[in-house]
Design a protein that fits this description.
The protein contains 10 helices and 2 strands; from the N terminus they run αααααααβααβα. It has helices at 14-22, 31-44, 49-62, 68-72, 76-83, 92-112, 115-120, 143-154, 162-171, 183-189; strands at 128-129, 175-176. Strands 1-2 form a two-stranded parallel sheet. The radius of gyration is 16 Å and the shape is globular.
């Protein structure tokens, strides 16, 4: 797929290309995957997404396969273990946020029947189809990510500012921000 035109941000790294070609912008409705991205996006705050992708498998191992029930029950011993794990981002605030977010995630699942139903309400269950010609046109936030951030914070989530929410929407396919000349644009447009 090396000769296909992609979004510029995915160039320069094979890992970025794989992520771009297979995951970014694909509508997700699986609670486990939605939770994984919620955790990873929070850890990404202030860092590059490539840093997170490079550590993704270490995160998966350290955080029990992103099992929300297990993470919600982490105590101080597990926090100390995570703080010593060189394979992940060792930031106490972000680790504490992951635990807190797991607890809120489980509460939301019970309340709404699924996290999918809760998170997709912000786009009325539809993918927002943008038609950007150039990567420079893609915003860091939107009215939808502003509203999502406000509600997630109100519901108890941490590390869910509007920029993180917008990146989350891109990663989980709630918004299609592939530029129109990218080979994935049409493919993602046809998904729902």
């Amino acid at each position: 797929m090396a000769n296909k035109e992609r979004c510029v941000w995915s160039n320069g790294s094979e890992l970025y290309q794989q992520y771009h070609d297979a995951e970014w912008g694909v509508p997700l409705h699986d609670d486990d995957k939605l939770f994984e991205f919620l955790i990873l996006e929070a850890f990404q705050a202030g860092l590059s997404w490539l840093t997170i992708l490079n550590k993704r498998e270490a995160f998966r191992a350290a955080f029990d396969g992103f099992d929300a029930v297990k993470i919600a029950n982490y105590g101080e011993d597990k926090i100390q273990q995570l703080l010593q794990n060189k394979g992940i981002i060792r930031n106490r605030l972000k680790i504490n946020a992951a635990i807190k977010n797991a607890r809120v995630f489980l509460k939301i699942q019970k309340q709404y029947g699924s996290f999918d139903k809760y998170i997709w309400q912000f786009t009325k269950g539809q993918v927002i189809q943008n038609t950007f010609q150039d990567d420079k046109e893609i915003p860091a936030t939107s009215n939808v990510s502003d509203a999502m951030s406000k509600q997630l914070k109100k519901d108890g989530f941490s590390f869910v500012g509007s920029t993180i929410c917008y990146a989350y929407m891109q990663a989980t396919g709630m918004v299609n921000d592939h530029v129109t000349r990218c080979f994935r644009y049409k493919e993602c447009t046809e998904m729902q």
